[in-house]
Write a sequence for this structure.
């Protein structure tokens, strides 16, 4: 077995050991990635409003009540004519229905639309990139684009794979591995992955031990430091 193959085998072995120890997470295969993302960006209907989002509330027949408002830290929004309403955790369709019910006490058959003007959601890029830190999320951003936003790979990057860690609403974590060599050649099943809000993209160094250290911190120890506290420019040693 050549040095290249031994290096890749060692990397995968370290990841497997770390994830078995964690128990609650696993590295998903390329097939799992396809099943999760279907090669498409997350659908807009799946996005749930978060604190800090900026919303456009439009009443076409009553434009005097149109408002652009931020979702406050308590998850509520302030409106014209009706009391404040909790928006956090709802889809735009669900919030629209809540608003129709609220405005129906003041207006006859209110016509309302809700649009997310700007999102507070972030993604995090860590490891051996030029500018580690947090970046704005959008439905179209992929893991590779996130690495580009962070200035690309450093000379110390392993350069063969990267990891995406995703936490479900229930707190369960999953780790996706993207094979950069397969992605570049177009061979194999590995594909770029569209990111979900608050995903962490990690670029390992050329030293396998660094991968083990990072997987222990982020997976086994259940991310003890909130990603929101990551400081841009603070690279993992």
């Amino acid at each position: 077995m050549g040095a290249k193959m031994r290096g890749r085998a060692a990397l995968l072995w370290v990841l497997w050991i770390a994830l078995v120890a964690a128990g609650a997470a696993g590295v998903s295969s390329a097939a799992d990635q396809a099943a999760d993302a279907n090669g498409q960006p997350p659908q807009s209907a799946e996005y749930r409003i978060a604190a800090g989002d900026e919303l456009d509330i439009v009443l076409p027949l009553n434009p005097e009540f149109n408002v652009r408002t931020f979702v406050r830290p308590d998850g509520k929004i302030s409106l014209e004519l009706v009391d404040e309403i909790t928006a956090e955790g709802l889809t735009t369709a669900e919030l629209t229905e809540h608003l129709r019910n609220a405005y129906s006490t003041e207006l006859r058959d209110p016509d309302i639309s809700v649009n997310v003007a700007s999102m507070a959601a972030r993604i995090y890029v860590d490891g051996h990139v030029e500018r580690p830190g947090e970046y704005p999320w959008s439905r179209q951003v992929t893991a590779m684009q996130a690495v580009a936003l962070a200035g690309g790979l450093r000379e110390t990057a392993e350069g063969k794979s990267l990891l995406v860690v995703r936490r479900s609403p229930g707190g369960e974590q999953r780790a996706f591995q993207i094979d950069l060599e397969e992605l570049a050649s177009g061979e194999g099943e590995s594909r770029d992955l569209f990111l979900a809000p608050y995903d962490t993209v990690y670029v390992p160094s050329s030293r396998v031990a660094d991968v083990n250290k990072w997987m222990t911190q982020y997976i086994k120890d259940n991310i003890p430091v909130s990603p929101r506290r990551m400081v841009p420019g603070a690279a993992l040693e």
The chain is about 30% helix and 20% strand. The chain has two domains: 3-43+121-229, 48-118. The first helix runs from residue 3 to 22. Residues 142 and 194 are 4 Å apart (CA to CA).
